Amino acid sequence: MAVYFRKEALPGIFIVCAAVLILFLVFSIKPTTSPKETYEVKVLFNKIAGLRENAAVWFAGVEKYQGIDVGRVKEIRIINSARINKDGKNEFDIQVTLLLNRQIPLKEGSAFRIASSGLAGHPHVEIIPGDAAGPDIPPDSSVRGNTPPDDLYTTLQELSGIVKSMELDKLSPKLRTAVEHVGELSEQLKLVAVDVRAIVHELRESGDLQTIVSNVRVLTEKSIVAVDTATNAVGDVKTMVGKVDTAATTMNSILDENRADIRQSITTLRTMTERTDQNLNETLTRLNALIGDIDTFLAENSDEIDSILVNLNATTQNIKLFTHDIKLNPWKLLMRSKERSTADMLQPISDKGVLAP
């Protein structure tokens, strides 16, 4: 009985422990902020530059204020507005509902705008604090946000995309260097914009003039470097255009100076071509005449040629008989034999080397 109880209890204990662990993980992962610790604020924008729901809300340039999350975008809706455009039609507003932590000191006069952290950063809502001594913005209030312009981030992002999409290997060295300088300039301008944001935040948070002056000096140095880079890029482009213009002028000058020689060379080449064609025609005519003479000669002397061929055949036969006889009777070269008639000598030889009867 004890063994049976132990076998049944162990799986049950294991399941209970697993359930407790799962509950612990669930409560540790879910947000610790309860609905009582948050409130909503509705912000109206003309455009939101790609902002999405659940995007972060920043306060005074930071995403966490005193260790707590500032908030998030709860809902985005398009609503009718009271504004009328130039065509006499009502314009639309985009209502962004923010879910903010109650510990955030949101005062009247605070500004709401759409921002992004760098070129690759996602858009978020940034709250620029108002007067710290002013009254609080009550929950469920509706405020007007600043319309995000086509800011430096968007422009630099488009410029960077254009530079990266270009096939630099197919460009000339000078033009490739100029394009690379433009890309470096966009990156440096991005850093300058980030530094400007940092300086504005320090102006609001601190009165340390020395730090501000130091940051301004760093920003100025980076701006000078960026301007120098842009100047060098423009200078390289101007130099390249000047070289192309010089090359075109030189080519035109060479053509003008040698126009008569080029025309004379073309005339000489045409004359040589015509002369070669004439000589080739004359050669073909002579060759045709020679072939005709050969045909006439063969036709007129066909009997003599046939006789010559018969004599050559007989001579070949005699040589063959003589050679064969010497091979069979080499002693005849040393001794004189009985003379044979011409008819006997002209008889054909069999395959066995014996005269035919």
Question: What does this molecule look like?
Answer:
- It is a single chain.
- The protein is of the alpha+beta class.
- It has three domains: 32-148, no CATH class; 150-275, no CATH class; 309-339.
- It contains seven helices and nine strands, in the order H-E-E-E-E-E-E-E-E-E-H-H-H-H-H-H.
- It has helices spanning 2-29, 152-165, 173-205, 209-257, 259-300, 302-328, 342-345, and strands spanning 38-45, 56-59, 64-65, 68-69, 71-84, 90-101, 111-116, 123-128, 141-144.
- Strands 7-8-2-5-6-1-9 form a seven-stranded mixed β-sheet, with no helix packed on it. Strands 3-4 form a two-stranded antiparallel sheet.
- The termini are far apart.
Topology, pairings included?
Layout: H1 2-29, E1 38-45, E2 56-59, E3 64-65, E4 68-69, E5 71-84, E6 90-101, E7 111-116, E8 123-128, E9 141-144, H2 152-165, H3 173-205, H4 209-257, H5 259-300, H6 302-328, H7 342-345
Parallel strand pairs: 1-9, 2-8
Antiparallel strand pairs: 1-6, 2-5, 3-4, 5-6, 7-8
Helix pairs in contact: 2-3, 3-4
Care to give the gist of this entry?
With 357 residues, the protein is an alpha+beta fold. It has helices spanning 2-29, 152-165, 173-205, 209-257, 259-300, 302-328, 342-345, and strands at 38-45, 56-59, 64-65, 68-69, 71-84, 90-101, 111-116, 123-128, 141-144.
